[in-house]
Design goal:
6-stranded antiparallel beta sheet; single chain; alpha+beta
């Protein structure tokens, strides 16, 4: 009688252990699936937010370009590049968003990873934080002026993008028609550029949240 009870007990233990193992395996699978779904959901949300932010920025640039009757409206952002021999980072900038009028060539591939040291006159304009119009013909001879001439830019206006007290880039509009450049003062670009710059700054700031 005792042997029979002991045998039943052993069988019960074996069955219980088997179910415990199966339950642990199922729990591990369910937990792993939940973790994977959660990670995918978070990544999808981030990607969706990324797309929304940059879609908004492109739409704002198009609105700005149309309001100012410009050839190009761009967002240009600063970034680090490689390093000099003394370990100092090469400060660079690139066009990250661009809206173009019909028939105007893109600057996105040309203004990519450019050294800030080659465009000091442009950086000085950025630092002024004043949306006034600068005419290429009036600029001092420099690499900037040569570059603008090569891109048929007759005039430009620039405002910095400042996030958390750091200038991270700038918004620039360019006019490639002398006739349109002559009418810029009548269009009144200063208010439009300031408003759009502020909206773009707010959108870019969302990426850090």
């Amino acid at each position: 009688m005792i042997d029979g009870s002991y045998s039943f007990y052993q069988d019960f233990i074996k069955v219980f252990e088997s179910y415990t193992v199966y339950a642990a395996i199922i729990a591990a699978i369910v937990f792993g699936g939940w973790k994977a779904w959660k990670k995918y959901s978070q990544e999808f949300t981030k990607n969706d937010n990324f797309i929304n932010i940059h879609t908004e920025i492109h739409e704002m640039l198009t609105e700005l370009r149309i309001l100012t009757d410009a050839a190009r409206a761009q967002v240009i952002q600063f970034h680090n590049g490689e390093y000099f021999m003394d370990g100092v980072s090469m400060r660079k900038f690139s066009v990250t968003h661009e809206s173009l009028a019909t028939g105007i060539d893109s600057d996105a591939n040309r203004m990519k990873g450019l050294l800030c040291s080659m465009f000091v006159p442009l950086l000085n304009i950025v630092l002024e934080d004043n949306p006034k119009v600068y005419y290429t013909v009036d600029l001092k001879n420099s690499y900037l002026k040569q570059y603008l001439d090569s891109r048929n830019v007759e005039a430009l206006s620039v405002l910095p993008i400042t996030i958390q007290n750091t200038k991270t880039g700038f918004v620039m509009v360019q006019w490639c028609s002398s006739l349109k450049a002559e009418r810029i003062d009548d269009i009144g670009v200063m208010g439009d550029l300031s408003k759009v710059r502020d909206k773009i700054t707010a959108q870019l700031g969302q990426q850090r949240k």
